[in-house]
Amino acid sequence: VAMLTGPKPLDGKRVLVTAGGTVERIDPVRYITNDSSGKMGFAIAEAARDRGAKVTLVVGKADVSPPNGVEVVAVRSAAEMRDAVMCRLPDSDIVVKAAAVADYRPARPRAEKIKKSAEALTLELVPNPDILQEIGEWKASREDGARKPFVIGFAAETTDVEKHATDKLRRKKSDLIVANDVTAEGAGFGTDTNVVSVYGPNGLVASLPLLSKKDVAGRILDLAQDGLRASGP
Ligand code: CTP
Ligand code: CA
């Protein structure tokens, strides 16, 4: 009952979450994507909603339906996701980038279906914008005292999790990085559970056991709330 009637920890806050995988067109019937299910980002959006936040969920391709009670912005490519995210930053208190953004896209998407031939086919790929890095740069360029969101990125790794995660945190100027070893049992894409460790500017912040994605979402929001309190008025 207290959950329904009492004040909630994120009352009045705006939370922007990205989830799912991006879709990079090759031609009208083919695309490049990845194994992201959207579940981790959806769990965070749902948990933030239950804590009283006004939630915007920017979602690419996902295997499950987004939660009710949040604003859903459907996108396909990384470029579309970038635009949807960047224009909402000034209104956001917390940004969680759980989406699996394709690192590359076809250099020349075709307007017509590519016909087969006996020849080998080479597809040229060009790098996508790094949205999390652009968020970090946008934040760094804001004047002192201007409203800045607390930014949480993710890192999907298969080796040297700590090293790669802390490198990403620094390169992308994020406040926290949630790292998962996608090869670990019960972790990563498609599952309902996850095993993550969270890194901040001073190193390891939390090393969580195997938990449901819902419980992982709760722990991540606890850390975001601590971060907001530390940087807030
Ligand atoms: N990310 C992003 N834009 C991209 C690529 C990644 O915003 N073009 C974000 C993801 O949403 C995630 C974080 O950056 O929050 C880390 O993504 P990850 O794929 O683990 O790292 P990369 O920097 O792309 O490096 P690599 O894939 O080589 O490990
Ligand atoms: Ca990547």
TrEMBL record:
Pathway it works in: Cofactor biosynthesis; coenzyme A biosynthesis; CoA from (R)-pantothenate: step 3/5; Cofactor biosynthesis; coenzyme A biosynthesis; CoA from (R)-pantothenate: step 2/5
Keyword field:
Decarboxylase, Flavoprotein, FMN, Ligase, Lyase, Magnesium, Metal-binding, Multifunctional enzyme
Cofactor notes:
Binds 1 FMN per subunit.
Q: In Gene Ontology terms, what is one molecular function of this protein? A: phosphopantothenoylcysteine decarboxylase activity
Q: Which cofactor does it need?
A: Mg(2+); FMN
Please list the residue ranges annotated as the DNA/pantothenate metabolism flavoprotein C-terminal domain: 10-224
Task: State the residue spans of region: Phosphopantothenate--cysteine ligase.
Answer: 15-233
Transmembrane feature ranges: none
Quick one: which residues bind CTP? 103, 113, 129-132, 154, 168, 172
> What Enzyme Commission number(s) appear in the record?
4.1.1.36, 6.3.2.5
Which reaction(s) are listed as its catalytic activity? (R)-4'-phosphopantothenate + L-cysteine + CTP = N-[(R)-4-phosphopantothenoyl]-L-cysteine + CMP + diphosphate + H(+); N-[(R)-4-phosphopantothenoyl]-L-cysteine + H(+) = (R)-4'-phosphopantetheine + CO2
The answer to keyword Protease applying to this record is no
Q: Which domain of life is it from?
A: Bacteria
Q: Which family is this protein grouped under?
A: In the N-terminal section; belongs to the HFCD (homo-oligomeric flavin containing Cys decarboxylase) superfamily.
The identity of this protein, by name, is: Coenzyme A biosynthesis bifunctional protein CoaBC
Q: Which organism is it from?
A: Cohnella suwonensis
Its taxonomic path starts at: Bacteria, Bacillati, Bacillota, Bacilli, Bacillales
Q: Which gene encodes it?
A: coaBC
